[in-house]
Write a structure and sequence with these properties.
Elements lengths: L1 H18 L6 E2 L4 E3 L5 E3 L7 E7 L4 H17 L4 E7 L4 H12 L5 E3 L2 H7 L12 E5 L4 E6 L9 H14 L5 H11 L1
Parallel strand pairs: 4-5, 5-6
Antiparallel strand pairs: 1-8, 2-3, 4-7, 7-8
Helix pairs in contact: 2-5
Length: 188
């Protein structure tokens, strides 16, 4: 009788993990980043651009390195239609972000968000560890096309892989508004 119960438990566990799997591609919903000077930056402000959303911890050395790398990429790719955004979500991020900005001088908007908001947006599973930085690539049509966690092989050659992803997304045309509305109606 025990093996049967174990099998049933494994099936429920596996099914539960599938429910929490990150779906890519998926529509990029709204995401708000609170800025240290007050106000917020909304993801929707950058419709029509390729967006790279970096979800970080201010105390993580890998995130600090990634922020410096992304600053250079923002300078290079910004004029071509890319916008990089950053959101810290570690404990006390609201208090730590100003010092982080002063030290690492990001060339892109960087603020903070709640852990719950970040986990919901990235479709994080509570059943597995969350490694930072988390990079989410959003195309010009507001679709999340790729998402990478700090533990992924993507980070072994981070700069090359980020460049390849940005170049791929920049080559794709923005859907016309009429085409986008037709597609949405067809799905309804």
């Amino acid at each position: 009788m025990r093996p049967r119960h174990s099998l049933v438990a494994l099936v429920f566990l596996f099914t539960g993990l599938l429910v929490y799997a990150q779906q890519v591609p998926r529509p990029a919903g709204e995401f708000a980043i609170r800025m240290t000077g007050g106000g917020q930056t909304l993801l929707s402000q950058y419709s029509g651009k390729v967006v790279l959303l970096a979800l970080i911890s201010t105390t993580c050395p890998h995130c600090q390195h990634t922020t410096q790398l992304l600053s250079g990429l923002q300078r290079e790719y910004g004029p071509r239609g890319v916008q990089i955004l950053g959101a810290a979500f570690n404990p006390d991020a609201a208090q730590l972000v100003p010092g982080f900005i002063a030290q690492f001088r990001p060339t892109f908007p960087l603020g903070y968000a709640s852990r719950d908001a970040v986990f919901e947006y990235e479709q994080a599973s509570l059943a597995k560890p969350n490694y930072v930085p988390e990079l989410i690539f959003i195309d010009r049509n507001r679709m999340i096309r790729a998402q990478y966690s700090g533990a992924d092989d993507f980070f072994k050659d981070q700069e090359k892989n980020i460049r390849n992803m940005l170049d791929t997304l920049l080559k794709e045309p923005e859907a016309s508004r009429k085409t986008a509305r037709s597609t949405r109606k067809a799905r309804s």
